[in-house]
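Objective 1.3, modelling of assemblies. Example input:
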Amino acid sequence: MTGRPGPRLHRVTVEDVASALPEARPFPGDGAAEEFDLYLGALGFEERCLTVPRLLARRQARVRAAVFAEYDTNVRENEANRGPYEAALGAVCARVTGLGTGVRHYEKQLTDVLDAEASRATGALRVLLDTSVASNHLVMSTLKLLLDQRRDVVLTVAYAEADRYHPTRQEFELNPDRWVGPGSRGLEAGVGEIDVMVQYPGYHVDGLPDSVVVIPGWGRDRARAAISWVNPSFLASPGDRLVWVLGRPLHSEDAWRHDALALINDVGESRTLDVDTFDYRRTLVALDRLFEELSGQRQLTLVPLGSKMQALGCAVFCYRRPEVRVVFATPASYRGSLYSAGTRQVWRVDLGSLRELADRVDGIGHLRLVRDR
Amino acid sequence: MRQRPDGAGEWDGRHAGPEPGTYAEPVSVLSTPEVGVSSSPDVVPGKAADAPGAGLALLLRAALVPGSRLQVEGQELAVERFFESSPQHLVVRARDRLGRLRAVHLLGEPEPGGGGLARLAEDAAALEGATQLAAFHSAGLVPVPLPGDGTWVCGAVVEEWVEGPTLADLLSCRPPQMTGTRLLALMRDVANAIGALRALGLEHGGVSAANLVLWTPPRGGLTDSGRFRLVDCTGLGRRRPDWRQGLVGDHEPVEDRDWLGFVEVLLQAHNALVDTKPLSARDLRLLRELDVLLPALLDDEPGLGLADPATLVQALESADERAARPSDPSREGGRPFEFVSAEHIVSNRTFVALFADSCPWLDRVDGPAPVVLRGPRGCGKSMLLRWLSLRTHLYDPDMRPPDRSTVGFYVSCSSDLQNRIGWIADDEAPRLRREIVHFFNMLVAREVVDTLRLVSDRADAQSLFGLGPEQERALHEFVAASLQVQTRSLGSWQRLRQCLELIDAAMQECHSAMRRGQTLPWTTSETFLADLSRLLTGRVAYFSTRRITYLVDDYSDHRLKPAVQRVLNRVLWERTPAHVFKIGTEKYGSTGVDEANAMIDVGRELVVVDAGSEYLALNESGQTKRLRDFADDLLARRLQWGGYEATPSQLLGTSDWSPYRSLGQALRARRTDRPGGRPGYYHGLECIADLCTGDVHSLLLVYQRILDRGAVALDQVVPVDKPTQHAAIVSVSRELLEQVRVTYPHGPRLYAIATEFGAHVRRVLDDAPKIKKGGGQVPPMCPRIEVEGLWGGLQDALSAEEYDVASWLVRRAVFVELDAGSARHGNVQTLRWQLRRVYLPAFGAALQKNDAEKWDEAAFRSFLRDPHAQLTRAWASRTRGRRARADASQQELFPADGASDARPASAGAAVADGG
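Predicted structure (tokens):
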């Protein structure tokens, strides 16, 4: 035996990394004026679309340029918010620009915007990403671009939590058929498009069996369409090839939504994981553990239809694990008036330097020599 | 230590050589003073104190220019180049009189280590033959004239010059040039080097990334084994007791410098591989193995640690073997009904055991001709194509693959091809055509090389396949030449795996370029696969008598857009004596033109096999026995694999309906007969065989459900009761029908068409007048639509929107279209669509067809736009006919039918009723 303990190896785990990542904290309505080089957001139909721009105005923040995505679904309802949205942004920013519709050119457009703003910035580009009404697709595309390009960006993610999400418990319990079962109408109508997210093609070259990890939302058909797109037999005979990641809401009064999600999506006997809807770090941890378990044996497809913060966790996870393919299903349209009402709390996650974040996350799985003293 | 080649500003001051020493009198250190340097007249020892201690190497570099001569132990060496090292250590690449390269280490400390140059030389000489280390040549003092008037006396160690990049070079690249094979080679080679040192009681003292050189042997040399070699023996010395050995005498144990250096090097290499994005499945598995193995390098628990190099190398080989393929869970054997599609089955052993080679169209697909195999997902295309691949049959090293005239390589478009080039829009495809072809070439080549890698692991690789080192080298060189890359090879060691890594890198590079909208300076051409095939048939004996067949599955436009297909068609349509393609696709899913708008006559130039219409055609031509044998075979293989005692006929029995077509009679009579208890109409092997329209996957789901609901035990040999079979079949039918709703695209619309038509079929069965068949009156069973006069086919006859819906109805197998060949009579082309039969139980309809909805083009188009309206008209037409006949004969055929006209044609109600 040894006279004294020798050096040993430590494997950096996702938990090690996640615990060092910043958590969401309240974004107060007052306080010192902040400066951002770039605001990135989206024009949507929910009330909370306006929340962060108004908060910035109230805090007398200064933003050098504001750029927002415009969706090609629910255009008329989105347009109802355009005036106040642009006005609120205009109060803190002289240059406010819409990026036009569609996701195909978003990446190119955003790259151009970042190039232009980076050339104006003296140091790191300070970016505020307002995810309040951004689609998960948008959140993940933006993060992917920023992390992959290893730009000198300091990123703050803002999120306005709705005061009331539909369906409320009463709405759900009074009329469950509306939400549960084939053809239920829910919050959205139909399936618009399904495709592999071009930024996250995965690496499925080895011909392994598929496994699908679904973070479902309130649209039954969308999740099922995405699963069917990967392999139709997974619906009838999922076996261990389908994993549902069910959201646990932030507030205890919303806890019923977890079970409702399982019911709506008819998860049956399939494997489920419960993951916080709010703490993006838990999404990262849950997905990475799953990856550790299945990678090399299965080729993984992630279908991220859950919360915005879960999408943020997915983006960080998928940056680290590019072997995972992301498939998105968009609805043909949203039932806008039913979606959410008001704002309960505004949150911010100060991710800081994205280069440092990328380095930290890249460290998952590294081995380090530890010398006990 | 060797760093980057010399150049301005490349000195980073890092120190990893011997400790800085003091200058000494220039004395000979070897036992043969006549070859020492003590005779040098220019030595000025007094100058030593003036030399900058931290910058000796810099000073020496200034003094020595290329072409300078160094005398070491009487040997003259011509200086060629300097390499960065520590401030007290300069590495000079030099040549001896015979032109051989040597590494000369010039040291600030003339007497390095504990014993000085003499001891070092003695120890290093003992290592002769240890090829893991650079070969030692000589050591001595050497005078170096300094700028000005002095001469510096240095310690000099001369060893073999090992050509190649250092590990530090590889790791400092962006991204780091680390691969699975390099990491494994590194572990193996350094472990062996340390093993050789330990055997002599020595330690190297400088194990670091800078001292490990990836050496590629010169061509034509005695060895073909590239490897990592440990260079710079200037730190060589006696091995000291390490912490594992506890206190030795009065000495405090010290860390094993070599072993710790080794571990640190491995961590750097391991972490670089972890950082590689993306990683192949094999590398992911390898890293998982190393996560267990590497910590054991420092584990001093007896029996757990891996501090012995030889044990480590053994453990490494085992780990690599485990990582070579995904685990083959034995539990697969217990759940044979989990596998309802080819993609579900990891193990080729399981796959072969479950594959029903009684598939009626197998013979038409096999053989040397180019084939288009059509059918929707679930029809067994993938099973069949995968079965034709060589890889599938390599699972048992003692079993020869089936002896066929072709040798297949399977590539599915549903995975990486779709993921990485499926996004390319129609307007971008022409610009990226070279990259698209290149990516496809690489994907196919990867499968070829990976399959050959499996072959090379077999004992009969040379005797049966004719695959040996020479063939592997030829293939590696062909790929490298095709990619125009010069890579540091590890020689014959795992050569095909190295080749795979080359291909992977090329695919990544290609994908990145396409995503950035850039083109590559060099790509493989449209003839690459033909050239590869010729190489294989020319060099590898097994291929010389077989046609190479590339099996491209899921080649449909929801995977690859039409413009991408147009680019690839030029490759896929090529055929040479050495190779052909067999393509799995959905009907209406692939384009028949190439980029130059050249059109292929698919029916004439390729063998077309449509699983759905093949099945129906056999059914209608009286060859039902073949179909039942196939259905029986499918189940029998799974039962056997799962350890069930029963045969299919024991578990399912035979249908009560003898002949079974009277199922329609029974269903029609259900309202008047009102049998008590649970319904049991759908049951028996014949009935189940009739559920299939080529969609093998549906049959497997039915079997799975019957066994589940019947709670069939392994030893059960009595049939599952009929009501249970019926309920299982109806539930599968409803689920599959429900899945149409979430089909993409047009799910709700396809679903509406299916449910309206299914309800109509049921209503016709229940309420329409019987028809004359075979001399008797039978209930009409009309799950088919026949449209005459569709000149030019669907695309010409329908609007774009109608065509889109119609094509997806066929692609998603809501309807199965009988092939055009069997639908021609006279000059009129008849479109014949049959509702997928597995949906019929959801409506309580019969499974056979003895009648059809015969429409004109306008009615068919109406059906696509508004199925309810068209089927209401169709029903009205049938009832008008019935009334007319009834009037004529004054005979009421079906008294109970009177109320049915008033019954709403509610598709939902029919589905819910379900029989």
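The mean pLDDT of chain A is 89.
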